[in-house]
Fold each of these.
Amino acid sequence: MNLLLVEDEPSVVSVISRGLTDEGFTVSIAPDGLIGKQLALENQFDLIILDIMLPGINGLELCKIIKAEKPNVPVIMLTALGTTENVVNGLDNGADDYLIKPFKFAELFARIRMLLRRYNGAATLDQIINIADLQINLSAKTVKRNNEDVVLTATEYRLLEYMAKNKSKILSRIDILESVWDIDFNLGTNVVDVYVNYLRKKIDKNANQKLIHTAVGLGYVLKDK
């Protein structure tokens, strides 16, 4: 899932972006309200996090602009201003939730999960795997890359799901045979290599960032770094 963080404090940006990336989100960052407005209106985000005290356009005004154009995108506001008046102002300008600094990342993540469930219905975070711009919906068994549908065969999907659930872990050919084909011995064929190649052609073709990598002599790994 794609999130936009509009925040001008580098330390806050670092903590939030690192935490969200570790949770599988793709995070775009805007250091001021003007850039935040441009990114929010020109791109599709699943959720937007706004600080109130922003240079250029303050968070309250920016929230109002975003909600007027994209009412179905949830917005969480962050601020050090924790008075009732500021909370009410944020909600009156369209914010879906409000978090007062300082806060723990776990609290922010819980709010994000709640809002995404509310807006996305049955497609909860637990049913979706995001790796860079690759999105796998485990419930619908659908795949998207850069918001474009990717059509896979049943076997290709099982292979991708297995690799995604083991993101950044090197998987041997035997591991893959056991988990995807339910075979606990080496067939003496290159069926794994063939299907990984099929996936590469569909997942990584024309993409700037390659996600499927070969670990020479060891196996394969799906990773975004």
Amino acid sequence: MPFPNTVHYGWPAGFPGAWAGQNPQRMVVPGANGFRAGAGGVTIAAFAWVQADGATVLNKPDATTPTAAPTGFVVRSQQGLGTRYLQENTMTIAQGFMVVLASGGDVFALATTASVTGQAVYASLSDGTLQCAAAGAAPTGTVDTGWTVAQGAAAGLPFIMTGPLAVARSTASSTSGTGN
């Protein structure tokens, strides 16, 4: 690892891929074998897609569904990685390692565009990176994620985005006598 050559006088508001608060957090539930990073690894703080096998995760959609919405956002969540070959910090989860995908909640992220509160968050179909724009105005080569900007920032700086949470269960009464 090279010697640091920059001094930052203040901490950023948050770190990309980290939870921004303790509001409800929603995770994508994996199958019995969990989610694993595919060939080339998976970038943290980017959107990712579960591939056709149901376990492999990549920062691009499966070839059979090239314009599908991402499965979730890759959060910073690694447990028990105490190996010497991982001594240097990186924002890539190595191939074969566990991946955790968020499907809702408040997280810090980086976008290649400026983000303004209320804008929609879009994911690049080639690498899962984020771009922000008005709802319904997807930038070329992106897909709507269903997430929105909760606290904006300049391009390349951490902003907070919020993802959809579970839809509330219907409370309408049932006339069949079987419940909701």
